[in-house]
Specification:
7 helices, mainly alpha, 184 residues
Length: 184
């Protein structure tokens, strides 16, 4: 896939997610964990072409760490509420600003590295999915932790076409453990 096409698809996917989450949606554990994990794994497989120069590795580690921090901050900035007995999540303006900062850091880092060494920058461009996936995964983990502590039902996946929401014994057990720790 060409670099330009990849960037367009990533920006379109993020825009779609931003619109959905600004409107508010159920806090679905599956959506918060599985897709980011898949993006992270795909990103790791793209590391094959990464130059092993110290500069490229430094930029990758730096953008990864920044994505982790911004992902955790995004997770903390998301507003949680209760609707129809389940936890709902809604992005705030702070969440959107943190997303913009995350994207700017990643692409800005690639541009800066391109000014230093064009071959390293081309290889580092393949790590966009890794850094975004890791950040999204941290965001999901923080939101899921907060949702489980809320005492409200956290669903695994939203029911489609009138079907009931899917729950998870694993999530229910985690929620019971959080509740017990809160009482102790």
């Amino acid at each position: 896939m060409s670099g330009t096409l990849q960037v367009v698809l990533i920006v379109a996917a993020i825009a779609y997610m931003l619109i959905r989450r600004l409107a508010g949606e159920p806090a679905e554990a599956k959506r918060m964990l599985i897709l980011p994990a898949i993006l992270t794994v795909i990103g790791i497989t793209n590391l094959d072409g990464l130059s092993h120069s110290g500069t490229a590795v430094l930029f990758l580690v730096g953008t990864l760490l920044i994505s982790v921090v911004l992902g955790a901050l995004r997770g903390a900035s998301i507003r949680l509420s209760r609707r129809n007995g389940i936890v709902f999540m809604r992005y705030t303006w702070v969440t959107v600003v943190l997303w913009v900062a995350n994207i700017a850091v990643k692409f800005g880092g690639n541009l800066l590295l391109g000014a230093i060494d064009k071959s390293d920058a081309a290889a580092l461009g393949n790590t966009v999915l890794l850094t975004l996936g890791v950040g999204m995964l941290l965001e999901g983990v923080v939101v899921l932790g907060r949702a489980l502590r809320s005492g409200e039902q956290v669903i695994w996946a939203q029911g489609r076409d009138g079907a009931p929401h899917q729950t998870s014994p694993w999530l229910d057990d985690l929620q019971r453990q959080f509740a017990r720790r809160g009482r102790d």
